[in-house]
Amino acid sequence: MYKVIVFAGTTEGYEISRFLGENQIPVLACVATEYGSRSLKESSSLHVQAGRLDENEMKELFSREKPELVLDATHPYAAEVTRNIRRACEEAEVSYTRILRTGSGQQNAVYVKDTQAAAEYLKGTTGNVLLTTGSKELAAFTSVPDYKERLFARVLSLPSVIESCQALGFEGRNLIAMQGPFSMEMNRAMLTQYECRYLVTKDSGKAGGFLEKIQAAEACGATVVIIGRPLAEEGLSLRECRHMLIERYGLTRKQKVTLLGIGMGSPKTLTQEGQEAVRNADLIVGAKRMVDAVRLSGQDVFYEYRSKEIAEYLIAHPEYTKVVVALSGDVGFYSGAKKLAELLGPDTEMICGISSVVYFMSKIGLSWDDAKIVSAHGKTCNLISLIRTNRKVFAILGTGDGVRKLAEKLTFYGMGDVILHVGENLSYDNEKILAKPARELVSYEGDPLSVVCAYNPQAELELATHGIPDEEFIRGKAPMTKTEVRTVSLSKLRLPKDAICYDIGAGTGSVSVEMALRASEGGVYAIEKKEDALALLQENKKKFALDHMYIVPGTAPEALEELPVPTHAFIGGSSGNMKEIVELLLNKNPQVRIVINCITLETVGEALDCIRELEKQETYQCESEVVQLCASRSKNIGRYHMMMGENPIYIITVQAHEKSETQEEQV
């Protein structure tokens, strides 16, 4: 006995039969021909019965098997079969559900009510015609004058079908015996080969290859003659039917989710593997631009780009068994795929796409294997420093004024000769690619959908260690931390690339500059109260092109209150506010790393007192270290070198930690 009987004469019928069989629901799939039976593979839960049944045979089948449910997934044009199934279910008192095939509206076509009307229309035309309505409808078209020469019939490659067509006069090159489905390219090739000006079809929906026929006709300039549906049907879509079965039988369905890189957005940059995934999908998810770029007619869509919301939607809609999440470019290149894969689980499939860097760099004729590749779209990105130290920098911008702002900054920092290759709306019909020096783009307004490659043949070598010579800095009367002390102090800070640093009492800015060069993906805040020192800071910032070095006038700790949370702080001058400064740093970040430079013994004592106070706190735990640095430099006296001692410096390092509950209990 079968719980469900499916009349599976269509793709939808085959899919719902497989769905039931895979979920261990006993199902009998009834198909009209042996050919149809080959579309289904039998299993312990799925059996296939081939052969046409009349109404009485259907009633006998229902009486014998006593199914809980009958699903009618026959072809939309099999009106008599549908009526027989419905009447047999009513008499056998079996629940009946019709599965509908999604239709497609087509405005640029001729609509007729039936096959006879299509033949009548063709009588008033000239030119060859491709008939794709099947062999059963061919007799009506024999009324068209010169039909044996004008009409080309595409039918199934079965001996009985061939014989019936030949009996009507369709033979030789005018009889095309092939099995679908047919791609747009195949349809187009046939229309071109036979020089057809018309294509006759039924609106058989997505699964029947209707859209591919329409697209091919449009590409060839052929007129489409569409035979209207014989029934105004009511029922469930394939998706709605799956949802009904899930609820009825308490099924849990594992979805196949594919994260698809669609390339730039134009269908031309979607890979063949991606096209196949889209064709097989019953749901397309993603931002509107991405979804609309790949969706096919009749497919369900969910416009959403946020990872959490996508995951929640898929959980709430298990009826979707094949889901494609459309993502811009490539799934591994600044893509939302990483976060989605974490939320959706390890079975999530990924299909790579063509990334913007690969596409654009090939367009402008530059290699990208030696380029610095970053994204400035919705994130902090220190492009100026990167361009200063790299010959090629590729960046995703994402704003209409991105090129203008970049050009303005490059010009301000003395790099107006850097060539900016700009790409907008890549792969689309309105694609725009240009290349100009930065100084010529300071007023440029472009498209948000843009990328840039900055080419700087004068790029400076980026140092791997601290230790810029003192004479490299623009200097005045403001104090400056010398090379040796600066090198040790910065080593004690242990700056990562994304550090947020304070330089308190910045003076000339030598420490700020070296901080910024090391923390290229973070930010440096140079706090200084003296006017002459502030001017020097600005000059050194400009000289070293440090756009992520921010100069803050004022006295600490007040000047620090509105700044971002620091990961690291260097204190070169405290103006007697050491305790207050350290307390504020700890309040902002209980795990901040601090390096203090002291010249006078009084400052050393103040700093050590401050550390002792911290060690008594219940909230923080501090590791500290004190190093005294005595450096000497040689001075030429005649033919001799005499070592001249610099002032001894005390370098104090403090690493704070927020105490855990376990540590507090141990104390």
Describe the SSE topology.
Elements: E1 4-7, H1 11-22, E2 27-31, H2 34-37, E3 46-50, H3 55-65, E4 69-72, H4 79-92, E5 95-98, E6 110-112, H5 115-123, E7 128-131, H6 138-141, H7 147-150, E8 151-155, H8 159-168, E9 175-177, H9 184-193, E10 196-202, H10 210-220, E11 223-227, H11 238-249, E12 256-261, H12 272-280, E13 283-286, H13 288-294, E14 300-303, H14 307-316, E15 322-327, H15 337-344, E16 349-351, H16 356-364, E17 372-375, H17 383-389, E18 392-396, H18 402-412, E19 419-424, E20 432-437, E21 450-455, H19 483-493, E22 500-504, H20 510-518, E23 523-528, H21 531-543, E24 549-553, E25 568-571, H22 578-588, E26 593-598, H23 601-616, E27 620-629, E28 632-637, E29 640-645, E30 649-658, H24 661-666
Parallel strand pairs: 1-2, 1-4, 2-3, 4-5, 6-11, 7-8, 7-10, 8-9, 10-11, 12-15, 12-16, 13-14, 13-15, 17-18, 22-23, 22-25, 23-24, 25-26
Antiparallel strand pairs: 18-21, 19-20, 19-21, 26-30, 27-30, 28-29
Helix pairs in contact: 1-11, 3-4, 9-10, 14-15
